[in-house]
Amino acid sequence: MLTISSSVTLADWEIDLTQIRAQGNGGQNVNKVASAVHLRFDVQRSTLPSFYKERLMQLSDQRISKDGIIIIKAQSHRTLELNKEDALARLKALILDAVKVQKARRATRPSKGAKRRRVDSKTRKGKIKAMRGKVQD
C-alpha cells in the first residue's frame, strides 16, 4: 500500500510492478539479472479522488499516456528492492506535484529606488566603457 497523504492511499492491486532487465553498461550480471522495475498505474481505474484524477490527466508529462496510464521505469540502483522503492517514490511525487495548488501571481512594479539604482549603474558602466578608448596626445 502506498500512502499519498493522510486521507489518500493506493492499494497494491492498483500498482503493477514488473521486473525487467536494465539497459546500459554492466558487468557479468547484465544479461542474467532483472533488477529494473517497470511501474504501471491506471489513473482512471484507481481509487484516487476525482480531483486527483482530473489534475493528473491535465498534466503534460511524457510518463502519462492519453489513456491515463502512468509508466515509470526505475533502473538507477543495482537491486530490485531499491528500484521498487524509487519507482513508488517517483509515483508519489508525481501525484503530489499534480495536486499542488499554484499560488496566484500578482503583477508588481519595481520601486523608484530600484529604478534609480538600475539607471545609475548603467551610466556608471557606460562611463567606464567610454574610458577604454584610445588615448589622445
From TrEMBL:
Gene Ontology MF: a single term: peptidyl-tRNA hydrolase activity
EC category: hydrolase
EC number: 3.1.1.29
InterPro entries: Pep_chain_release_fac_I (IPR000352), Pep_chain_release_fac_I_sf (IPR045853)
Recorded superkingdom: Bacteria
Gene3D superfamilies (UniProt xref): 3.30.160.20
Region described as Disordered: 105-137
SUPFAM superfamilies tied to this protein: Release factor
Prokaryotic-type class I peptide chain release factors domain mapped to chain residues: 21-37
Keywords: Hydrolase
Protein family per UniProt: Belongs to the prokaryotic/mitochondrial release factor family.
UniProt protein name: Alternative ribosome rescue aminoacyl-tRNA hydrolase ArfB
Gene behind this protein: arfB
